[in-house]
Fold this sequence. Notes:
Layout: H1 2-20, E1 39-42, H2 46-57, E2 62-66, H3 74-79, E3 84-86, H4 92-97, E4 105-108, H5 113-126, E5 131-136, H6 140-148, E6 153-156, H7 157-169, E7 176-180, E8 183-187, E9 193-196
Parallel strand pairs: 1-2, 1-4, 2-3, 4-5, 5-6
Antiparallel strand pairs: 7-8, 8-9
Amino acid sequence: MLITIVFTAVFTAGVVDRLLAPRAVGIVGPRALPRGGHVVVVGLGQVGLRLCTQLQGLGIGVIAVERNPAAPNLRLAKALGVPVVVADATDRFVLRRLRLGRAQAMAAVASDDLDNIAVSVAALAVAPELRVVMRAGDHEAIAETRSLFKIGLVHDLGSLSAAYTTASLTGLRPRGVLAHGKRLLVEGADGAFVPWPQPERCGHPDR
């Protein structure tokens, strides 16, 4: 009788945890893992969550990967119908389980540049022809990595945001910003693209 009570309590706790867990992935429905043609988004911060919802709005399958089981956006992603896997995206076994070889692309958009580099390199080791978009900032490792590896598209979101903001302040009413190589192109309300100057980085030494 005691064993029965213990197993009943464990089973009930497991069911409750499954229902309330922020990382549930469905077998069927909107939170089911896509079989192919999807985009893997690593990092479920504000950028990652917005990217997932935008891709879903375009009818593109998406899988979000978040390493931190206590990330604040996990429950929100579940409520929005985004399939989320809580795992380390630098683990090649995890990447294979995400069907990376059948994916359209991967976006490494975590807040840490070094984490994004590690994820991108691991992804290309599993799927060498995969298109990779990596969120990057001013970390010196970004320039070194680009010189050593062809890791895909490296976007500086700070420059993109600055271009959009300054274009808005000048009355251009931009619809978006496109990075083409080392150039930034601002899309105006009429659909035309205007080259946008990028300011030089500050050369002051770090303190």
